[in-house]
Amino acid sequence: MTRFALQFGQTQAGLTYVERLSAYGLCARGESQLALVQIGKKEPYDYDLPGGGIEADEDEAAALMREFIEETGLTVWPTRVLGRAGQFWINRGEPRNSLCTFYVVELSADDGTPSEADHELVWMHPSEAVLRVRHEAHAWAILHWLRARRGV
Minimal CB count within 10 Å: which of 7, 19, 21, 113? Predict the structure, then answer.
């Protein structure tokens, strides 16, 4: 099993975790808003950074841009890699180890509509986003991004 230097989440005995390369982006609007995906048709919702799995015919940047359009309707351009971390979790009954690359992205256009019916773009203050995202790896990426922006 591949591991990134940072690994989040807990494994359960007896389960085999399938590795999945994925890419996620941190997209800011001004100084106080960060794009998140609200997942679900009714409360309680899950919240993630926009992004997801990399398909066999894609590189990280292409997957990230596709996922942003599908999940948020936003067109973005990855500007730099922020960091990498693994996240153990169960997705629809399937144990996964998401090997996540987190990018800082630049917003190119915001006139689209998500194509995934249970996904909605929400803008949230980064300090609230840290508390609301469901994955520890995403919370780490937001904190890492905030500290880098403030020169800490």
Answer: 113
Per-residue pLDDT band at 152 (split at 50, 70, 90): low
Measured CA to CA, the distance from residue 27 to residue 77 in angstroms comes to: 10
Residue 75 half-sphere exposure toward CB, CA atoms < 13 A? 5
Per residue in 2-26, pLDDT (tens digit) is 567 899 999 999 999 999 999 999 9
Phi first, then psi: give them for residue 45, nearest 5 degrees.
Answer: -85, 155
Beta carbons of 101 and 20 less than 8 angstroms apart? no
Q: From CA 48, how far away is CA 147, in angstroms rounded?
A: 19
* CA 116 centroid distance within chain: 15
Sign, CA torsion 145/136/76/99? positive
Show Cβ contacts of residue 131 under 8 Å, excluding neighbours closer than 6 positions. 139
pTM of the model: 0.93
Give the tokens for residue 76: 């973005």
Distance CA 82, CA 29 (A): 17
